[in-house]
Specification:
alpha+beta; 5 strands; globular; single chain
Length: 206
């Protein structure tokens, strides 16, 4: 437990920059890059980018209430290419550990782990057993506890995650989660409805 907290304090510097995440307005946003995780046809005319954190309650609500319908309607049918850009919101150490675990689980399980983290979010925060909650999600993806420990202690992976978040802040002007960008144009900061996404996709498809 002590190692878990100590190792993940490496994200504190980035975390300090994100103290107001979800409150401040940002500028523009960037296009998907090779290090980001995506779903759907990369050649789709419409590109949706979501900046999200696995410790963001609004992101979890979107994941549960809107994303499944959006995915079935647009991503699975090849109409939209979706990219998740990782962001860190308080507690940043937990968000960082969650994204590290998702990546350690493998590209084919990445979004399954992210979904499980969103669905476990409220229980983890209420119980206060953050490490235990993360470990259970990791184990559900086939990781052992030893693999989990090695994963969240991977300083190179954490450094790469921090670099992606810093790029989102400094280059893309993002300061809130979730932030949605359609074909390079910011759609919204905060929760969106399926109707809003329907309209955005229709406009971008013209």
């Amino acid at each position: 437990m002590q190692t878990f907290s100590r190792r993940l304090l490496l994200v504190a510097a980035v975390g300090a920059s994100l103290a107001l995440a979800g409150c401040n307005k940002g500028g523009g946003a960037g296009a998907p890059s090779a290090e980001d995780m995506s779903l759907g046809d990369p050649n789709a005319k419409v590109k949706l980018v979501e900046y999200a954190s696995v410790t963001c309650s609004h992101c979890a609500k979107f994941n549960e209430e809107v994303f499944p319908q959006f995915k079935a309607k647009y991503i699975d049918t090849g109409k939209v290419h979706y990219t998740l850009k990782e962001f860190l919101t308080p507690p940043e150490q937990v968000a960082a550990a969650g994204f590290l675990v998702a990546r350690c689980a493998g590209k084919d399980k990445y979004f399954t782990v992210v979904d499980a983290l969103f669905r476990s979010q409220q229980e983890m925060f209420q119980s206060g057993d953050l490490r235990g909650g993360l470990l259970r999600v990791a184990q559900s993806a086939g990781m052992t506890e030893a693999q989990f420990n090695a994963c969240i202690q991977d300083e190179a992976a954490l450094k790469a995650l921090n670099a992606r978040v810093e790029k989102a802040i400094r280059q893309d002007g993002v300061s809130a989660t979730p932030t949605f960008v359609v074909n390079g144009k910011k759609l919204a900061e905060g929760e969106v409805t399926l109707a809003q996404l329907d309209a955005a996709v229709a406009e971008a498809s013209k």
